[in-house]
Amino acid sequence: MSGNTFGKLFTVTTFGESHGPALGAIVDGCPPGLPLSEADLQRDLDRRRPGTSRHTTQRREPDRVRILSGVFEGVTTGTSIGLLIENTDQRSKDYSNIKDQFRPAHADYSYHHKYGRRDYRGGGRSSARETAMRVAAGAIAKQYLAAQGISVRGYMSQLGPITIDFKSWEAVAENAFFCPDPERVPELEAYMDQLRRDQDSVGAKISVVAEGLPPGLGEPVFDRLDAELAHGLMSINAVKGVEIGDGFAAVSQRGSEHRDEMTPEGFLSNHAGGVLGGISSGQPLIAHLALKPTSSITTPGRSIDVHGDPVEVVTKGRHDPCVGIRATPIAEAMMALTLMDHLLRHRAQNAEVRVETPVLR
Amino acid sequence: MSGNTFGKLFTVTTFGESHGPALGAIVDGCPPGLPLSEADLQRDLDRRRPGTSRHTTQRREPDRVRILSGVFEGVTTGTSIGLLIENTDQRSKDYSNIKDQFRPAHADYSYHHKYGRRDYRGGGRSSARETAMRVAAGAIAKQYLAAQGISVRGYMSQLGPITIDFKSWEAVAENAFFCPDPERVPELEAYMDQLRRDQDSVGAKISVVAEGLPPGLGEPVFDRLDAELAHGLMSINAVKGVEIGDGFAAVSQRGSEHRDEMTPEGFLSNHAGGVLGGISSGQPLIAHLALKPTSSITTPGRSIDVHGDPVEVVTKGRHDPCVGIRATPIAEAMMALTLMDHLLRHRAQNAEVRVETPVLR
Amino acid sequence: MSGNTFGKLFTVTTFGESHGPALGAIVDGCPPGLPLSEADLQRDLDRRRPGTSRHTTQRREPDRVRILSGVFEGVTTGTSIGLLIENTDQRSKDYSNIKDQFRPAHADYSYHHKYGRRDYRGGGRSSARETAMRVAAGAIAKQYLAAQGISVRGYMSQLGPITIDFKSWEAVAENAFFCPDPERVPELEAYMDQLRRDQDSVGAKISVVAEGLPPGLGEPVFDRLDAELAHGLMSINAVKGVEIGDGFAAVSQRGSEHRDEMTPEGFLSNHAGGVLGGISSGQPLIAHLALKPTSSITTPGRSIDVHGDPVEVVTKGRHDPCVGIRATPIAEAMMALTLMDHLLRHRAQNAEVRVETPVLR
Amino acid sequence: MSGNTFGKLFTVTTFGESHGPALGAIVDGCPPGLPLSEADLQRDLDRRRPGTSRHTTQRREPDRVRILSGVFEGVTTGTSIGLLIENTDQRSKDYSNIKDQFRPAHADYSYHHKYGRRDYRGGGRSSARETAMRVAAGAIAKQYLAAQGISVRGYMSQLGPITIDFKSWEAVAENAFFCPDPERVPELEAYMDQLRRDQDSVGAKISVVAEGLPPGLGEPVFDRLDAELAHGLMSINAVKGVEIGDGFAAVSQRGSEHRDEMTPEGFLSNHAGGVLGGISSGQPLIAHLALKPTSSITTPGRSIDVHGDPVEVVTKGRHDPCVGIRATPIAEAMMALTLMDHLLRHRAQNAEVRVETPVLR
């Protein structure tokens, strides 16, 4: 298929440009009988919404989502679910200065070579605004997974040079950074304020965890659960790296250290991050992703225009100085979509499997 | 589709267990007119083959591949290509001791819960032996890409705690580690010898680079080139992390540092690793992958059996003390397959695009 | 993937119920640079629109389509195209009488068993209203194909017992039946008027023809052009049969009669309907489809309710006495979508193929 | 994906040319725990095998199938199943006379234009020999369906001008024509003998029936059960038409006649052929397919060569005077594969659905 669809059985197909009339998605393959309302989707959309703190873009979008099909009398019918978000804050600004220029580290140059043209208004299709539909679709997956006792939650584990240890899920919900340690928040705010004064941006690291998974999700050999999760997470704007469990730390580990031993009481460790041979083990599924610093900064940068001539580019407008700050709900959505797809795929082939062996956690 | 197929237009579907009669693959979507012989595939298969040095498993497999269709009079016809490798070294050993046990860090436990049964001989389908067909299929992609001026090459950038700087591609071909620095080889050999004495294993980091790419490969928004590459690389046995370009280092970088500025003479840096907005920029495509230490070690480990009772597991047999040593050709294959698929996908939609803008390198 | 997507490279995914707030589609994979406006889509939508003559349902829907993405400055950008049609004529009628009953020959019974529930208002997702989005998406394919010199046109070849010979394409556009012979129109009108008096419905046969095709479209062995066309046409509501070329007449033909001989001046006949070995020959692609009579008639019929108890069903409301009358634009759309998909697929793999042999027509 | 794969969850990918070293297939997505042996596949392969009567090609192929993976200790493991059939009767004949000619009604001309080259030995990939792997894969689906109480059986309903009424399934197994009426067999034999004397060929009509289906199989709106079945059946070599239930007869039927009324005792008729709204109703699934006459006849025919010059073609070699005679097992296989795929797809999404309403037959 073309590139705007994610998943094989629980599929999400999206459309929409940053400054077009609307964003939309079609969620196909949702089981019937799931209670679902627009409010269920709005919750996560509000967590991703811009302009909620001084540390993110000041673009004002209510991001009100409408469910146009697939839900009848408050529950899903099993048919495709149409979602729509109208863009309201499309400033009619003058783009003549950038329409023929390639902003460094943006998709301008690669889109231009791929398509021969592009919607240059706010990045068009390459804008992170597209991720709003991922969050809306992911909320449907989360709703279904929750009913199965599966939770998907994320947090910021590093902001620029500042590493953050996990303290509690409660803390995550109480600050604009999705920071799991309330005592570190002032430090993060101070860092961000200085960053704005420096007219610069910085990267971030996000961690996502799914708990309550049954063992057995994932398809050997190419559609492993971790492989498809890596696909989903790496497809998020600005992501440059993905780790499962110990990730790159495993490079310098010994086998006797890395292997997660098992006892009747459960696993003794979780270096693997909940995946064995590409299939869920039933332990918490743990992934980390690296987001690069925002490319749009007001510090001038060297580039070329469509004619190949040198230009100096200064990116004005309303931008997140750290795209990672709003990435947590998006990462949760991609993990939820991946799990939902694999839950259905596993069920399709293995519905009749019965196992005596107890499930370890 | 099910999980044993990779790619959307240039597809590879594989079968085969570690100790079954044969491994096989079907490569579909190869353009017609490509000169192709079994020798072209054998070259890479020999680079991956076990038993070529004392640092890898002593299993003796010639890994002779046969082309059963899709090639006529020395060139591809455009129809599906059937590949077959007969297993020759399947020792008829007694598996009764492990058939009901779950080896720690192996797929035994997750496969058992997924399918309710498994081929326990040498890991069955979960064995890395499966990767032989990836290498064979990848060699077809490499052959086509090479004719387009695109090269795909890899090397070992870290062995356990030992980091290795890139020196030359020539060096890579001259040692059993795919080490790019000939002066470090003795150090690696000493480390491996000690590792064997310790009856332990270790992880490794592999780097893969594609050069000569046209800009424009990759499909927004979910099928980004880097996302599909991450999918392919993470699907390799034992891989726990994938980075594109600077990867996790980008977390602590500033935007003014990370962004790759452009001049008429070319890009001034390549922190992005050759991908902008998920689409190739024409710069070298750079990826790094982390491989965990081999799970099969002779040091006893705690586990349970199918009844949930505690057992002590000692993995005997012939195993690589570092699976990363033979992973380079496999990583190259997955990158080649990803690029081949996207080259065709890009061509399908954008064949008529003509761009005046010069291509930067 | 799930069932609401058609095509592999040029994909159409749809949503929407008969009496929901809106219908929508996402068209993915359209080449960039194609001039496209809402008016280009509206043309075919108007040909399918209900209430344009006394011989079709009196439901009044303007079927105004909006393009929400993928088109910038009047041409396609290569990104996904979002389409939306708001439902305006959703009568708030009382469905309590049919909500628990299964109308004979409708999808009520099969949907109920599949999903355990259904949107019973006007048939919900199973209503032919869904085909409006096929026509809108098909119009995009037609626009692209037309630029390549490929036309896709259809006509009614039989209405109930009345067979109609093809006379001219001009005639097709000048009557409500898509009848290619102007002299037969009065006969058709008289038949339809009597049908309404009989409170009954009838079937129809539609023929579709594509001209100007290049030879080579279609993928052996499962994705033959005729196989995918049969898939697309059979997926239209009420279709019970599909023929390519001579179709079922070929059963009693001799090989010496059926085979289309070739001369340097061209083919001497077209019994094959433009397909050889599942691949286009360059001759006109010809398909015929059989549509069953409308299931919704006011003559009472026997059925059961959700409890399994016997009921007598009388289908009220506004229905086409012959669904075939409005099926021509839908059949054209499915043929156009199939050709568009295969044009891109062929181009992906065979872009480099050059053939000296002249193309016959 | 490319064209050599059928199905979405239960997938079959095939390779192999008529005169290549071997034919093969990979069946992916088969549930684990299914008892399966090579003998189970051989049964249907033998029904399709050439040279079993004087009315089919005299090519002698044992068509011995080997299972190379996915089956362990006599049952399926859930991993991909590799199948292989070695070609044994590849006569080393001289093809120089036809290598540059296009046989009328064959795929020679369309393959040449598509790929720029072709394996001309016995038709290469376009040969019906490819269908052997469909039958082998279909036998796996049949085995699983049978365990669910679902049978898939076919018979010849017309040979050239001779229509045959269904009498009994027992009769079908007792003659070389799959004729359901033993009293008509002598007539068929006489017709075939005369046909050979005339050095000509003829078409046939095959009917396939599945019984014991649960209601609910099929995915709206594009992947309807009947649409995917039409895809599968039309993809069989020489098929020119497909009907579901009454098919083209429905064109002249009235709604009051066609609709299948329901009573608590069951359906009163089956004009629909077991499908309502594209979803199985639980009634017998009935399809009919039209096969064109064999293109290879010894009567000379006009054609051109690769240079566009006129030639007279005489097709020598060993050919079926009626390809329809051996098509019954192939049609059964495609219906079984379609049902298997949809059984898994339905299960994936609707595993939790519980319905009180009784199932009618």
Automatic annotation (TrEMBL), chains A, B, C, D:
Please give the catalytic activity noted in the UniProt record: 5-O-(1-carboxyvinyl)-3-phosphoshikimate = chorismate + phosphate
Record PANTHER family: CHORISMATE SYNTHASE
Extract the ranges annotated as region (Disordered): 37-62
Q: Which residues form a coiled coil?
A: none
InterPro entries, A to Z: Chorismate_synth, Chorismate_synth_AroC_sf, Chorismate_synthase_CS
Amino acids binding NADP(+):
R48, R54
Q: How is the cofactor bound?
A: Reduced FMN (FMNH(2)).
Q: Where is the composition biased (Basic and acidic residues)?
A: 40-49
UniProt keyword terms in alphabetical order? Amino-acid biosynthesis, Aromatic amino acid biosynthesis, FAD, Flavoprotein, FMN, Lyase, NADP
Q: Which GO terms describe its biological process?
A: amino acid biosynthetic process; aromatic amino acid family biosynthetic process; chorismate biosynthetic process
Which EC number applies? 4.2.3.5
Cite the CDD domains for this sequence.
Answer: Chorismate_synthase (cd07304)
| Function recorded in the entry | This reaction introduces a second double bond into the aromatic ring system.
Q: How does it assemble?
A: Homotetramer.
Which residues make up the binding site for FMN?
A: R125, S126, S127, N237, A238, G277, K292, P293, T294, S295, S296, R318
Which metal ions or organic cofactors does this protein require, according to UniProt? FMNH2
Family affiliation = Belongs to the chorismate synthase family.
Q: Give the pathway listed in the UniProt entry for this protein.
A: Metabolic intermediate biosynthesis; chorismate biosynthesis; chorismate from D-erythrose 4-phosphate and phosphoenolpyruvate: step 7/7
User: What name is this protein filed under?
Assistant: Chorismate synthase
* One Pfam family here: Chorismate_synt
Molecular function via GO: chorismate synthase activity; FMN binding
Instruction: Tell me the enzyme class.
Output: lyase
Task: Report the GO terms under cellular component.
Answer: cytosol
| Cited NCBIfam families | aroC, PRK05382.1
Q: Which SUPFAM superfamilies match?
A: Chorismate synthase, AroC
